[in-house]
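Title: Prediction job returns without error message
Component: structure pipeline
Severity: low
Priority: P3
Assignee: unassigned

Description:
Job completed but the reporter wants confirmation the result is attached to the right record. Sequence as submitted:
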Amino acid sequence: MTWVHSQPRRTNLKEAQAAHRRALSKLGPLPTLPSRRRMLELYETMIRIRTFEQQAWESALKGEGLPIHPSTGHEAIAVGVCSELSPDDRVVSNHRPFGHFIAKGGSTSELMAELYGKSNGVCKGLGGEMILSEPSIGFLFSSMIVGACITIATGVGLALKMKKSKSIAVCFFGDAAATNGAFHEALNMASLYRIPVLFVCENNGYSTNTPAVEYMGVDTVSELASGYGIPTTVVDGTDVLAVREATAKAIWHIGREGAPYFLEALTSRIGPHKQILVDTRTPDRTVFARMRDPITRFRAGLLAEGVLTERTDKAIRNAAKKEIGEAVAFARRGRPLARKDLPGYIAN
């Protein structure tokens, strides 16, 4: 018997190049380290958020402002995600919105005045702590109802798709919201209609003071999202560069596929759920949360790599204190709300 060996087919250059491009398109954007200037900007924004909340906390203790839901420990998520958004991308937030608002470009002065209930606040003093809206910067609003922001953000994404916009909707919510029926309704619809929305779950492992193991039957919220056919990524939410990179890949996927993406950022909440509530978490959990402080972590890395110096760090912190001090002065100058400012008020 004579064996006949077939000659292998030769691939021409154009076919090889096309195959290479197809392979690269499936990988998504390659991770890149931001410039030194950009890393300092990320650090500066995290410091501004932390400084604002510390001052808002003190103002509430003095009776000048409202008690707050602090996002201390979540700063890397807000900054990492919002640093990759375009001005036209729409953000919908939850009851812990300050970091998202500031990271999206919101005014700290108008935000502080809002907490003071003054007419020069971002919502004229009518929104208060948890109902904020500044469409001019792409921050549509925040909602005090747990889970409500998820369905509304999905609707925003659908509207963008119907308008054939290249912008996306972004929704921030906590892990406890995943036990709400609105979560499942929204993810199912987003998957079914291929809606361009980025779901960002800030998983700090607690619903107020109740640990997730007592109200959730899965280890990560992403397991629930994947059940609806939505691609997911779980990232360290205390690493601002990791969050930024994961967000870039998520946005690339949404733009390429015209479909939703689920990003879960694991973090720890430093401090109580709300200022006026007692934190009943065990001492070891609160210590663990402080050890994972995203600002301390990022600062150490920047110092080690020579991106940040002690002198520059001091200047950034002083600038933040000056900015927030001016925000307090702005809020104090504002006019307190009167009955005529209330929607639907009719004078006798």
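Comment from assignee: result matches the submitted record. The chain has one domain: 35-328.
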